[in-house]
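Input.
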Amino acid sequence: MFKQWLKEYFSFTKKERRGIVCLLLIMTLVWLLPDLFPRRPAVSATQLETLIKTRPELFSGDSPTHRRPWKKYEGIVSTVERTKKTKPFYFDPNTISKEEWKKLGLRDKTIATIQKWLSRGGRFKEPSDIDKIYGLRKEESARLKPFVRIAIKEKGYSENKVDSGRTKPPFNKPYRKRQEFSVDVNTADTADWIALPGIGSKLAQRIVKFRERLGGFFSVDQVGETFGLTDSTFQLIRQFLHCPNPAVKTMDPNQAGLEELKSHPYFRYNLANAIVQNRQQHGPFKSLDDLKRIPIITNEIFEKIVRYLEIKE
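Output.
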């Protein structure tokens, strides 16, 4: 009986056999199709530099077809144009000046990011750290990394730390000790947050946006409530945070509408709707303590939201 079922299951009509053959041919064609067309070779920075000299119309927009076939390489082209006139030299990224960064071919915006980070106590510990510079392209980092010489202070003398592990004669410039710094959680911008360990540009933007939605921080611990900020990272940066002016933006629970209340991270829809409904049924709140008559407002919730509420005349 099993043989009969097997025979019936694997038997095909003439039309079905033709369909299977066509399907196999299509699958084979799709598999071989990429090999039938030549692939565009990768363009290196050296080849682009040659193209700039021999075919400038491709990059200037003066082509008769008014097209920019190399537009996706414009970032590399601008880097080539900027760096072909520069000659790399040995430098310490912790002590180098703005003018020297320019001589190395860096953009003003990138230089400003580096200097602001250094001014807040940041420090390059090894040559590979320049890979982490926000705004520095990979080709720029690869070009500069062999010339990085970082002065370190150990056992009372300074020496140059290089990738090969060999030591070079010490720098003439004195070693700059790491400066202690702190961040005001209510006034810090994204650059200030990025200067902290473990904080990138996206996380810095989330912290600033969370602060704006709250209306300001009244405690350093509120920073730890930011979405995506792990507790381990928060504990790492907590020592650098302070909140000297915990002034926050307040709302009047007797005047604020449902939309205004629920836009605040601490209220959301359920709590905002409960406040509005209670106000309509029992009249305006005479004091903030009257909010405790709402069943869903526990003492813990009350302590969080009371900072952002104020009954105004």
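Strands lie at 150-154, 157-161, 183-184, 241-242.
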